[in-house]
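Review form for a predicted model. The reviewer records the input and the model, then writes brief findings.
Reviewer: anonymous (R2)
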Amino acid sequence: MSKLYVVGTPIGNLGDLSPRALEVLQNCDFIAAEDTRVTLKLLNRFGVKKPMVSYYEHNIRARGEEIVGRILAGESCAVVTDAGMPCISDPGEDLVRLCREREVAIEVVPGPSAVIAALAVSGLPTSRFSFEGFLSTTRKNRLAHLEEIRQMRHTLVFYEAPHKLLTTLQDLREGLGDRRVALCRELTKLHEEVVRTTFSGALEHYADHSPKGEYVLVVEGYTPPQPVQVALEEAVALARRLVEEGQAPTAACKEAARQTGHRKSQIYTALQEGR
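Model under review:
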């Protein structure tokens, strides 16, 4: 059946290619690859011989039309990225959109994901998270992005290249404050490494260790500052002033509780006892 298959491929260890993904790659008519040289290594590893077309950021419009035309003419295509799931911070997103517009059938063949793998080993909360992809290459836009997400309480996930890692860590510390971070690289490969530290600790670490490989940064979410707890005597004094100004004792104690963090009943009891 003519359709587009969105096929996940290994993020490092070629042994992670699923049997279903291999079956699709063997049986489709052609493969759309982000970098045909990278995908050829995968195909050679499993003895798959299949025609490929390049599909990457700078040819997505023209090549996308070509791919969709071939599928509508009766062929099946498997779209893959260099590593992981296509369409996640990847040009395949545009191809899927185009297929949806042309009512082309689409089937997903799930596979490894650097985002999920990094979250799993980060040691940070995973019940809620936001994937933020690559930050802008323009510092003004990077800081604007960070300001937009600064108070999000869930875990944040970013991608970064080694040559930009130190600059990104500096901007993360400036834009988000010093937080816990897990820096994951070479996941599933021989030299897999996860550095669990803070932004400041990471900057110190990589001042002495040159960054290598592509990174996934898993960042702690925002923690609101705890309200300053004033002494109970101050809360009672505030309630007493409010009563003297004409408020009912219960209303005065409620307002004092809101401002100080003490329980209303605690303030009311102390007020009645004349503290």
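Findings: The beta strands are 4-7, 30-33, 52-54, 77-80, 106-109, 129-134, 155-160, 180-185, 193-198, 215-219.
Further findings: The CA atoms of residues 242 and 252 lie 5 Å apart.
Recommendation: see findings above.
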